[in-house]
Design a protein that fits this description.
With 508 residues, the chain is an alpha+beta fold. The chain is 40% helix and 30% strand. It has three domains: 97 residues, Elongation Factor Tu (Ef-tu), domain 3 (Beta Barrel), CATH 2.40.30.170; 85 residues, Helix Hairpins; 181 residues, no CATH class.
């Protein structure tokens, strides 16, 4: 009896087994719903490629190549012809101003000086003889003139004596002139004799020596080059060739980083000293020379080295930036997105009016000045809201048009540069009229600051970015700043961490 009563719980296990398939089906349905919900939200997000708005630095640099040279290089030549007898300076020798570095055979010039001295002595002897003749002629004339008053000599004799006196005086003057001529010729020869000694005109280092003892130099129309001396190698310069498309960004005082193949592990620094106006055209490519000064106190850099330089034209720190691809994204339904955008009051942080308000806030305005600005700004905003095109959106500085994107929200063709310039000019004139009462109350410094700000804002590049919020795109007008090629500075109704659409994914 007891052995047969133990198997009774078996029917309970069979009842539990019937619920296992139901539980499996329920779990599968729940998993499917979870997967479908996640797939739907993921599909909305994954339909677009996005980039986040970040805060950081943007450094803009222009690349160029050039050659190192001494700040001042002096070519030492010869003003006279002759044979080199001594060379007293060699390559890399340090020389001081006035130091003898070469000599030319002086014998021919010494002989000319002796000859000239003899001619001067002969002319002086002839002068003494002429002076004696003159003295005798003066005495003879005075005697005959006295006798003539007494009617003791004929008038013709007096006239002959007067002519002899004049001839004696002319002879004396001629001999005096001859002496001066010979003296000057001898002095010229002495100067040439002094030029047979070649001296360094500056303190520096000999870069080039192109003569040897025994060589004959011939000075004709141009002076032959004997030495090349670098005045100071502690300070050097680079002459960079900058393309015409970049030269407008280069200014004196900008920092320059450069490298040389001779020192691949080192980076050197310099400063832009001058942007020269002498353009050079090579194969239809126009370049401008930019002179960069370099501190070479340690003597590492050598003249003639080829360098690869970067001119830092902008270094923006702690700014909002986004991938440059975001500025190139233009959806086909841009007009629909613009119509679905929030009203202008919600995007109050963008546009020229808001930029001008921020600029005025940075100025130290008095109460009357602030009141005049607020009155003008209110009139500008009222006109923007009433007009079909909003000037606050500006004109794209890089091929865009009023209204944010190229050619407006519809994505039409970009304006040509001349049309952009006309738009900017009209906008500048309009804003100057709108704020005439305000600017009349500013002092000279404030007015100059306001004019610079207005010109910068009107000429700024503006475009439309598309922010992704809950799988939906929103058109956001922004102002474009500096760009390093991969990222671009932006300012507008955006915040750090916003997702900006840079492209659309192909449907699966």
């Amino acid at each position: 009896m007891s052995t047969r009563a133990k198997p009774k719980p078996a029917p309970r296990r069979r009842g539990l087994t019937r619920f296992v398939p139901i539980a499996v089906v329920a779990a599968a349905i729940a998993a499917g719903l979870w997967w479908w919900t996640g797939r739907g939200s993921e599909g909305a997000e994954s339909a677009y490629r996005t980039a986040l708005v970040e805060r950081g630095a943007i450094r803009v640099a222009i690349s160029a190549t050039g050659t190192l040279s001494a700040t001042s290089t002096v070519t030492v030549g010869s003003q006279i012809s002759g044979q080199i007898t001594e060379v007293l300076a060699d390559f890399n020798d340090k020389v001081v101003k006035g130091q003898v570095i070469a000599r030319i055979d002086p014998s021919s010039y010494q002989a000319q000086i002796e000859q000239g001295s003899a001619q001067i002595a002969s002319a002086r002897a002839s002068l003494a003889q002429a002076q004696a003749t003159l003295e005798n002629a003066e005495l003879d004339y005075r005697r005959k003139a006295d006798l003539g008053t007494q009617r003791l000599v004929a008038q013709s004799d007096i006239d002959l004596a007067k002519a002899a006196l004049d001839q004696a005086r002319a002879q004396v003057a001629s001999m005096q002139a001859q002496i001066r001529q010979q003296t000057a010729a001898t002095q010229t020869t002495r100067v040439n004799l002094d030029r047979t000694v070649i001296r360094s005109p500056v303190d520096g280092v000999v870069l080039l020596r192109s003569i040897e003892p025994g060589q004959t130099v011939a000075a004709s129309m141009t002076a032959p080059e004997l030495f090349q001396i670098a005045e100071d190698l502690a300070k050097m310069r680079i002459e960079l060739s900058v393309d015409e498309s970049d030269i407008g960004q280069v200014r004196a005082g900008q920092a320059v980083n450069f490298t040389a193949d001779a020192f691949p592990d080192r980076q050197f620094r310099g400063v832009v000293e001058q942007v020269r106006l002498s353009a050079t055209t090579t194969n239809n490519v126009v370049t401008y020379p930019v002179v960069v000064t370099v501190d070479n106190s340690d003597g590492t850099l050598l003249p003639g080295l080829t360098v690869n330089a970067e001119i830092e034209v902008s270094n923006r720190r702690n700014v909002l930036k986004v991938s440059s691809a975001a500025t190139r994204y233009k959806p086909a339904d841009a007009a629909d997105i613009a119509m679905a955008a929030p009203p202008s009051g919600a995007a109050r942080g963008v546009g020229l009016a808001a930029d001008l308000e921020a600029a005025a806030a940075a100025m130290d305005l008095t109460a009357p000045q602030r009141a005049a600005f607020d009155t003008a700004l209110a009139a500008v905003r009222e006109r923007q809201q009433a007009g079909p095109q909003r000037p606050a959106q500006g004109a794209r500085g890089a091929g865009g048009a009023p209204g944010g994107g190229p050619g407006g929200p519809g994505g039409a063709r970009a304006l040509d540069p001349s049309m952009q310039a006309q738009i900017r000019q009209r906008m500048t004139e309009r804003f100057q009229q709108d704020f005439a009462g305000f600017t009349a109350q500013l002092d000279d410094a404030q007015r100059a600051q306001w004019n610079r700000t207005l010109a910068a804002l009107v000429g700024a590049t503006r475009t439309t970015l598309y922010r992704l919020v809950d799988g939906r795109r929103e058109a956001v007008p922004v102002r474009i700043g500096a760009s390093d090629g991969s990222s671009v500075e932006i300012s507008g109704n955006l915040a750090e961490g916003d997702a900006i659409v840079v492209g659309e994914r192909a449907p699966r």
